[in-house]
């Protein structure tokens, strides 16, 4: 803590204490259900174009440098780091020591230093709290310094804007500034885990996970907005985690101790587990609140569609608190296809699984990133491109090996549109998606007849319990069949063009 010797430090305060400070000093409001509400405008989502990795000889050949994994010099890092240290002198700071990773063999002790109390509350919710006997001898392996009110100068600091997220993997420091959006904290730490774990033969995954009564684990891969949290929070199964996990030789483990759920259009009838979990001790970001009645309006997107709830895992009725599960039996790849082309569900071979894993096709939904207003078709490596900083084939090879070794069933599930593209067709009903996912997990799709998609050559089940058969083949839902095939061919060409960069990868 020597870098904070001149600061006024609040160390590992309780959620209640942090909440009271946020109310008195940071404009936070307590909603009628007890949750704390804050506003992070103008940044209401991640800023991937403002994320940098300090380049050095030790890491240079390992990192997949691209438009997201952008290099920044050690000179620029030292400059902004020293200015931040000067900036936080004599400030009130909130410090949380905890872990990322539930498996003690692979977890990482981290220290998060926050300028805002509500962000320290977020850190406590989303990371794993140490036990009393662990805090006395705590030694962080990584330190995060989040100072939203510190603005970068691009000409001086080598950034692209006033906002920055800088990862120094050699010195094990993360600097975040210019944004109050709390998601940058945990996503930067996840990125760190995604760098170090494969070196230990552990596959880091941007996925949610749950487990049935028989102990069988299911993984849900997908970008933000595709339904990872919603589908994993199933009344018939226990939630292990909702965002990122590791897969070792002994099983899977959650990276965090909380859940960061999207809550736009949240309703008790559609997502009862998430609805009931939002109460005292929960942090809501950018949800509209009536300042007089303190009532929440989850349907109001005036600030963003990316409204969020940081929820402690213990708030869920059915949760695996130790955050650990067995080797997965089923993997679900989620895609919110805004073109309405892909089938609602298809079964994948190992080779197809690696192909779609590397492709990571979906549509970015409004609000998940700054500047996204309407859904935009995108390919995101490993369904988590912004957080995967090693070469993509490293992750794909690990996945393929584990699928083959453990005979895992893999399905591609479209949670997007049917009957036409966005603006013409309609979103596939959540109740149908749930039934398809349950059928895949329960083995109900193991022995049904399959037909092959004429363009994508995907195996589509012809029947599924509780789901109208006519929607299982997407062409049936389009009025103009020839237009469907035309658009399907166009999307297939996009897949082929995107996969050119992986042409030397062995599937």
What does this structure look like?
With 507 residues, the chain is α/β, with parallel strands linked by helices. It is built from 12 helices and 30 strands. Strands 11, 12, 13, 14, 15, 21, 22, 23 and 26 form a 9-stranded mixed beta sheet that branches. An 8-stranded mixed beta sheet has the order 1-6-7-8-10-9-4-5. Strands 2-3-17-20-16 form a 5-stranded mixed beta sheet, with helices on one face. It starts with 7 loop residues before the first strand and ends in an 8-residue tail after the last helix. The model has no long low-confidence stretch (mean pLDDT 94).
Supply the key terms.
single chain, alpha/beta, 507 residues, eight-stranded mixed beta sheet, 12 helices
Topology summary:
Layout: E1 8-11, H1 15-25, E2 29-30, E3 36-38, E4 51-54, E5 70-72, H2 74-87, E6 92-100, E7 108-114, H3 117-126, H4 132-135, E8 142-147, H5 154-157, E9 164-168, E10 173-177, H6 183-196, E11 203-211, E12 217-221, H7 228-232, E13 238-241, E14 244-248, E15 251-254, E16 258-262, H8 272-277, E17 283-285, E18 288-289, E19 296-297, E20 308-312, E21 324-325, E22 328-335, E23 345-348, H9 350-359, E24 361-364, E25 376-379, H10 392-406, E26 409-414, E27 417-418, E28 426-427, H11 430-442, E29 450-452, E30 459-461, H12 481-499
Parallel strand pairs: 1-6, 3-17, 4-5, 4-9, 7-8, 8-10, 12-22, 22-26
Antiparallel strand pairs: 2-3, 6-7, 9-10, 11-12, 11-13, 11-14, 14-15, 15-21, 16-20, 17-20, 18-19, 23-26, 24-25, 27-28, 29-30
Helix pairs in contact: 1-3, 9-10
């Amino acid at each position: 803590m020597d870098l904070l010797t001149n600061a006024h430090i609040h160390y590992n305060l309780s959620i209640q204490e942090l909440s009271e400070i946020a109310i008195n000093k940071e404009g936070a409001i307590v909603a009628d259900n007890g949750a704390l509400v804050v506003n992070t405008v103008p940044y209401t989502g991640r800023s991937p174009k403002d994320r940098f990795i300090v380049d050095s000889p030790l890491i240079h050949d390992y990192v997949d440098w691209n438009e997201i994994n952008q290099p920044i010099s050690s000179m620029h890092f030292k400059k902004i780091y020293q200015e931040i240290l000067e900036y936080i002198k004599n400030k009130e700071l909130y410090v949380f020591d905890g872990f990322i990773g539930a498996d003690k063999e692979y977890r990482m002790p981290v220290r998060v230093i926050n300028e805002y109390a509500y962000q320290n509350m977020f850190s406590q919710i989303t990371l794993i709290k140490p036990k009393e006997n662990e805090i006395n001898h705590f030694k962080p392996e990584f330190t995060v310094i989040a100072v939203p009110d510190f603005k970068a100068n691009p000409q001086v600091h080598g950034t692209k804007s006033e906002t920055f997220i800088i990862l120094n993997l050699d010195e094990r420091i993360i600097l975040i500034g210019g944004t109050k959006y709390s998601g940058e904290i945990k996503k930067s730490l996840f990125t760190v885990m995604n760098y170090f774990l494969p070196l230990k033969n552990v596959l880091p995954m941007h996925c949610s996970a749950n487990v049935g009564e028989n102990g069988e684990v299911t993984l849900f891969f997908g970008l933000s907005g595709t339904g990872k949290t919603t589908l994993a929070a199933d009344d018939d199964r226990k939630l292990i985690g909702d965002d990122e996990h590791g897969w070792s030789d002994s099983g899977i483990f959650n990276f965090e101790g909380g859940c960061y759920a999207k809550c736009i259009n949240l309703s008790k009838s559609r997502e009862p587990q998430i609805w009931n979990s939002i109460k005292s001790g929960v942090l809501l970001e950018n949800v509209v609140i009536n300042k007089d009645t303190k009532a929440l309006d989850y349907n109001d997107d005036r600030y963003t569609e990316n409204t969020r709830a940081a929820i402690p895992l213990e708030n869920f009725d059915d949760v695996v608190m130790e955050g650990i599960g067995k080797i997965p039996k089923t993997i679900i790849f989620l895609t919110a296809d805004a073109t309405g082309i892909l089938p609602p569900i298809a079964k994948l071979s190992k080779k197809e699984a690696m192909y779609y894993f590397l492709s990571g096709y979906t549509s970015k939904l409004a609000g998940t990133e700054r500047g996204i207003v309407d859904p935009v078709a995108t390919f995101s490596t490993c369904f988590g491109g912004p957080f995967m900083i090693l070469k993509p084939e490293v992750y794909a090879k690990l996945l393929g090996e584990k699928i083959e070794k453990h005979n895992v069933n893999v399905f591609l599930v479209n949670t997007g549109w049917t009957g036409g593209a966005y603006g013409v067709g309609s979103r596939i009903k959540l109740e149908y998606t749930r039934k398809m996912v349950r059928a895949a997990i329960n083995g109900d799709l193991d022995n049904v007849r399959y037909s092959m998609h004429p363009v994508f050559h995907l195996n589509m089940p012809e029947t599924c319990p509780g789901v109208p058969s006519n929607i299982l083949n997407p062409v049936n839902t389009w009025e103009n069949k020839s237009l469907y095939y035309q658009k399907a061919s166009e999307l297939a060409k996009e897949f082929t063009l995107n996969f050119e960069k992986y042409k030397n990868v062995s599937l």
